[in-house]
Amino acid sequence: MEAVINIGDDASDNRRGLELTERLPGLRTTIGRHPHSAGEAITATERRELRELASHPSVVAVGEIGLDYHFTDYNKVPKRAQQAVFRQMLGLAQELEKPVVLHTRDAFPDLLAILDEFPGTGGVFHCFSGNSAFAAEALARGFYISFAATVTYPTAHGVVGAASIIPLNHMLVETDSPFLPPQSRRGQPNAPRYMVETVERIAALRGASAAEIAKATAQNAIALFALNHAG
Q1: In this structure, which of 12, 84, 131, 135 has its CB flanked by the most CB atoms within 10 Å?
Q2: What would the mean pLDDT of 204-230 be, rounded to a whole number?
Q3: Peptide bond into 178 cis (omega under 30)
């Protein structure tokens, strides 16, 4: 284990994540406004605060940001509000020249269209939930694609298909802890130690060794998030 990246979702944990990096060696963090927290537009005051936080050397990306149209009792933020906040956060990332960590659920066409409004922006499609066609669109824009333990689920055909074929130099793996444990641990909280099952599954799909997948995805993460240079 070389580094851990904590994810910021909104004002309730962005600053706390940054404070943790000052206490825990090897921890990095992101500054985000998750689509579930996009009900209110970002004010000028909040944008100044976000810019201040995101400028810290331990902040390696802007995220999670994105669109989530999978409406549940937990997430009822209107599409238009999500899109407005997403554009605001993409603008911040572009201004600071930081990569983005994208959350996308049932919203790939709109998300790709908005991304195209911000040329030059790079980053990663976190916990990829699409198929090979959407993966191709992400890759065409220069993005990395990150796979979580969903690749071990027997019904995740689209994710499995994408993990089988995308170029290894644009692949990441992640835990998305404490959510989405591997199939062997369903019903339990996820944990970083289970990521080996994700790596082994991807290796089996690609006819590669787990060591090969682990090495490549680690190198990609270091490159994307500039982990050799973060404070």
Answers
A1: 135
A2: 93
A3: yes
Q: Do 230 and 129 have their domain in common? A: yes
Query: Across residues 58-77, what is the average pLDDT?
Result: 91
202, 229: one domain: yes
To the question of pTM greater than 0.85 for the whole model, the response is yes
Q: Are residues 91 and 182 in the same domain?
A: no
User: Structural domain of residue 52, as residue ranges?
Assistant: 1-106
By CB atoms closer than 10 A (0-12, 13-18, 19+), residue 185 is middle
Verify that 96 and 179 share a domain, yes or no.
no
